[in-house]
Amino acid sequence: MADHDRNLDHLYLHGFVERSNYSAPGGGGGSKIRQVDRMAHGRLMLSQAEGSFTSSDQQRDALTSLDPELRATGTVIVLEGATSREPLKLDSLNQRTTHKAPRPKWILLSVRPASGDQPERATVWVSDDYRAKFLELFRDYLNKETSAGNPKRNELVANIAGIKKATLTDLWTSDEPPSSHGTHWWEVWLEHRTGNSALQVLDTFLEQHHLRRLSPRLRLQDRLIVWIEAPRSTLEILLFTSVPVTEIRAPGFLDTIEDLNSDEQQEFVIDLADRIHAASENAPAVCHLDTGVLRTHVLLRDSLTAADHHTIIGTSGNDADPQGHGTSMAGLALYGDHLDELLASNQTVELRHRLESVRMMPGRHESSTDPLNYGTATVAAVSIPEITAPARPRVFCLTLSDRSDTPNDPGQPTLWSAAVDALATGTDSTREGEEFQLISEPDPEQARLFIIAAGNVADYQPDYRSNSETEAIEDPAQAWNALTVGAFTELVGTPTDPQYTGWSPLATTGDVSPHSRTSLLFNQKKWPLKPDICMEGGNVLTDGAMFEPRHHLLSLRSTDSATDMSLDSANATSAATAQAARLAALTIGRYPDYWPETVRGLLTHSAEWTPSMWKEINAEKTKAKVQRLIRTFGWGVPSEDTVLNSSRQAVTLVTQDQFIPFEGEKSQLRSFRLHDLPWPQEALENLGAADVRLRVTLSYFIEPSASRRGWKRRYAYASHGLRFDLQDSTETQTEFTKRLNREAQQDEEGNRPKSEASKRWTVGRDYRSLGSLHQDDWYGTGADLARCNNIAVYPVGGWWKYNPRADRKDEPVRYSLILSLQTKEAGVDLYTPIATQLSVPIQSTIPIA
Q1: Residue 764 — left, alpha, or beta (φ > 0 → left; ψ -120 to 50 → alpha)?
Q2: What are phi and psi of 651, to 5 degrees?
Q3: DSSP state of 361
Q4: Cβ distance 613 to 510 under 8 Å?
Q5: Distance of alpha carbon 47 from alpha carbon 703, whole angstroms
Q6: Residue 771 and residue 718: Cα distance in Å, rounded?
Q7: What sign has the CA pseudo-torsion 830, 835, 836, 842?
Q8: Cβ-contact 578, 563 below 8 angstroms
């Protein structure tokens, strides 16, 4: 195919959408209610609740040294469920008075999901003033009936299997808590109160017990997060004080990361530096949140000015990169995996994007008085370049990870991942004294694109696939709004060095890299499909017993921080992420009007599985198993050509839209968007029985709810959800709309039936609708697709709908919908008839270096 047939702009759809409404049908759904002996069970639950309060009162009274002003005005108890099929009714566990200045009656603090033989557990604070009202819930169950003749409060009380007094362990929502010996750091989540009263009460407690709190703190919506150094025995007392603790987690503090080995100097570095033409100051930038960058390196210095070189930590100055990691990633973000060929050539290199750097990791021998939390560090790091160069478009490249706040449920949001999600939505970050805040309404005009590394395995095994499958993607790469990058490899060379005689590459060509983690340990029906894409991350050399993970032949060439002219060998998911960030910056430069949601979606949309990945996909017969493979290597590998260009036989259409998903006093009216598709009808019908692939990608950002209060229905982590569906070739538009109405309600209730239409899709609607980036491939004949005239985007409820707040009422949401048509039939032009309908002039563009 001639170059002028390949380097075509993607087509932008404008005016091919209309707003439609439908009201949700009544009835159906609901949680399953456990069958119990009403009188025996009700008396037992009432007795356990009363006993929990009595026991807690006795323990509170025994703390005679506790300042009377700090004594608790409520009791923390734990409600245990029975089975995951009969969940606790969390909606009933958050109650406030109806006065103009409402006071809490009882508050749902946190929820630990069922795991193994451990049932679901809800930790609840009950006000002393409303304890009798709380106990009345159980008496109502025993003595009163509904109009339908069922016990009152049946769904709440019947599904509770036990009630007990809370301990520190019950407030703990990470993995195993620290031991009872010694002093430890704790991440304490408080209910935010006006005027910092929560912090004042906590500080009084800390002062009386001679404990230390870090001065930085983070406010995320209705939660205030602080870090305390204390022995476990002292922290146990918090449950009997007026300090409004909602949950406690393992703190994730910034620590050092291992250096990447440097490959020694290359002969032509200076020659290449003389041939580089840096991009202009206002060009898009890759902003590295990493260990810093050696700005004076000759291959980086013209693309990273002193004004764009920042630090939030460390003592060695802005120009230092003590770890070497950030400098290595900067080279890959600027040149991709082309550095070897550029060094060997004599061509001029025209760069189209720039670099920024914020150092947020201490060096190996650096130390600070206090540790710095990842979430707070990220908020601080993001704000600096935005203040310095507010008009410059940028993509944030985050290649750091943390394993300390590991929840029982891998893939569960953490403070760090929630902070990333909030920043991505355009939530404003501010600082008042020592408090960082992420509390404003989402501002789509300030949305940010984060590209994050999936994380690397801890060690290596001969069975590298099983090794990757049993090591879950690391925090914060589970963030819903981020583009998460794993690693694959096509580097399968064998060294000629005699010391490696008998050694060979561990992974086969086109397979997942032995360095990369996966999301197979995530809850398959709850948490997002990660990684989204893969990029080259290198291979591992082995003799069957020993492993060499950094051999230069199986790694990528990049810049090194040892000297201003040295080169480095880089690998793993950090290297893959830096390359993906480069593609994102090039996309922003080529299509400056694309939103961050669109750029994220386009990189995933343009990815393709390698032949070895395809072989595994085609061998699977069920969509559940296909989903497991996507959790291993995402949607494959995007190329620069497919990300930036359409062709005659592979045309990409992009639309960016927004609407108010739920309206009315109780968000009862649902709206959806109906996209009329400008199909090349004649070209498709002429294909007859020949195969056509339609790829659909829906990308949007959600506002997170970071507190672990049970991510179900009205307490969902996501503010809202969107779904897409394609009109079937046998449906009228009216029939299509009715089906959407029915299936949207069923989706929220979790009981949507299987669809025959899903057979044409690779993933299917049940598995593609996780997270906030949804993608699927439709396969069929051109004649069938010609009759599929509409794609709908419709909402399902999140906490904006089920836990409405005045400042989120009627909040619009925006999304990017990306479609591509592709056929392997020779001589077919799908591009021209669509471009003609859109009145788009057809011209090729100059490829970007």
Answers
A1: left
A2: -110, 135
A3: S
A4: yes
A5: 40
A6: 8
A7: negative
A8: no
Residue 627 corresponds to which tokens in the numbers above? 């989903």
Closest to 334 measured CA to CA, from 827, 849, 710: 849
Q: Which amino acid is at 624?
A: A
The number of beta carbons lying within 10 Å of the beta carbon of residue 827 is 6
Average pLDDT on 448-463 reads 96
Gyration radius of the chain over CA positions? 28
Report the number of secondary-structure helices (H) and strands (E) in the chain.
Answer: 23, 39
d(CA 80, CA 44): 13
Q: What is the mean pLDDT of residues 471-483?
A: 95
Task: Identify the pLDDT of residue 848.
Answer: 28
Amino acid at 458: A
Task: Provide the residue type at 5 as one letter.
Answer: D
Residue type, 756: E
Please state the domain extents for the chain.
Answer: 3-28+645-837, 38-158, 183-239, 269-614
Task: Let me know: does 268 contact 243? Beta carbons within 8 Å.
Answer: no
Predicted confidence (pLDDT) at residue 81 exceeds the cutoff of 50 = yes
| Element at 453 (helix H, strand E) | strand 450-453
Residue 343 confidence class, pLDDT cut points 50, 70, 90: confident
- The model's confidence at residue 755, banded by pLDDT at 50, 70 and 90, is low
CB 159 within 8 A of CB 82: yes
Helix-strand-coil split of the chain, %, nearest 5: 30, 25, 45
Q: Of 681 and 386, which is predicted with more confidence?
A: 386
Residue 622 burial (CB < 10 Å; 0-12/13-18/19+)?
exposed
Q: Which residues of 638-656 are buried (b: 16+ CB within 10 A; e: fewer)?
A: bebebbbbbbbbbbbbbbb
Q: Is the peptide bond before 442 cis (omega within 30 degrees of 0)?
A: no
Six-digit token pair at 847? 């490829």
- Rounded to a whole number of angstroms, the distance between the first and last alpha carbons of the chain is 20
- Cα 600 to Cα 772: distance, rounded to the nearest angstrom: 11
- The mean pLDDT value of the chain amounts to 85
What sections of 432-480 are H helices per DSSP?
A: 464-469
Q: Give the three-state DSSP class for 237.
A: helix
Q: What is the spatial distance between Cα 667 and Cα 590, in angstroms, rounded to a whole number? A: 39
746's torsion region: left (phi>0), alpha (psi -120 to 50) or beta? alpha
Counting every residue written for the chain, the total comes to 849
Q: What is the DSSP string of 617-631?
A: HHH--SHHHHHHHHH
In CATH, what number does 269-614 get? 3.40.50.200
Cα–Cα distance measured from residue 814 to residue 659, given in angstroms and rounded to the nearest whole number: 7
Residue 502 region by backbone torsions, left for phi larger than 0, else alpha for psi between -120 and 50, else beta: left
- As a whole number of angstroms, the distance between CA 741 and CA 794 comes to 9
DSSP notation for 6-63: TSBPPEEP-S-EEEEEEEPPPS---PPPPP--HHHHHHHHHHHHHHHHHHHHHHHHH-
